Prior knowledge:
This protein is α/β, with parallel strands linked by helices. It folds into two domains: 31-127 and 251-321, D-Maltodextrin-Binding Protein, domain 2 (3-Layer(aba) Sandwich), CATH 3.40.190.150; 130-243, 3-Layer(aba) Sandwich (D-Maltodextrin-Binding Protein, domain 2). The chain contains twelve helices and eleven strands. β1 (34-38), α2 and β2 (65-69) form a beta-alpha-beta unit. α2 (45-61) packs across α10. It is globular and about 85 Å long. The termini are far apart. The mean pLDDT is 90.
Amino acid sequence: MKLPQSDIAMVVSLLVLGVSVTDSAFAQYPVKPVRIIVSVAAGGAPDLAARAIAPGLTKALGQAFVVENRGGANGNIAGQTVAQAPADGYTLLLAPDSLVVINRNLYKKLPFDPVKDLAPVASIIRNQFVLAVHPSLPAKTLAEFIDYARKAKPPIAYASAGNGSQHQFLMEMLKARAGIEMLHVPYKGGAPAVASVVAGDTLAAFSGGPSTAPHVKAGTLRVLASSGTRRAVIMPEVPVVGETFPGYEGIVWSGIWVPAGTPEAIIRRLHAEINTVLAETEIRDLFRKSGGSEPFITTPTEFADIMRRDTEKYLKIISDLKMTAEN
């Protein structure tokens, strides 16, 4: 049936009006406070990053960006919370890379799909980890640590931010390269893991600078090595693990995601505003002073490529080391 010209004109007008109203609603975003759900406990690099960028986003967008910590299960608790939230741009997830590039291939069962149920917005921060030990341990170098661990009966207990966390992966990679046994003790974030080493409940951990730096300065932790491809500018005296085991490296990053289905216009605006905040000298200096982290600014295409590359990288490690985990 052919519609009269008047009806066609009315339909077109309604469609244009609908697009205009929708664009106007997106242009006004946000109209209420926005939650940033952080997948680790307070004190870790992702938490630091969230609290660093929240004021800038609040100023730029005119609504409060409120940080909430939901640690546990290597980010799966926070991830599920955001995946099941309304796809309206008012619930953001700030989490380490492991949530998206590791968990999907490591956990036997997840309550959500990190790839299908979350949409990437922006990369935020990157850093290398350090191998820190309790000062009661006689080891002063990585070689001495490996020798001590090889002879220890029972095995040394090491802490991590949870099953499947980068903290665990880096230690398991070291164990495999060095041929040593250690006992894994998972916690609900990097800060609690580091606290356990400081207390002597565990004796070693790979962790980020923000969680480790204050304790190293206080003498309650000793750093033996770092996980980067080159020595950190703030710790030039600390060797990288790769100097002992060529090819070993671990650069850790965090990003922001929203529930799948969030309007693309909102994602684009968040991406642009986040990158503007990250480019500020004040943010860069804050990241560096807190433990050698760096703002991690990428385009959407670059961010997607990094996630794809790291997923393939860790899938191979999971397969080679026959790793698995449960919530």
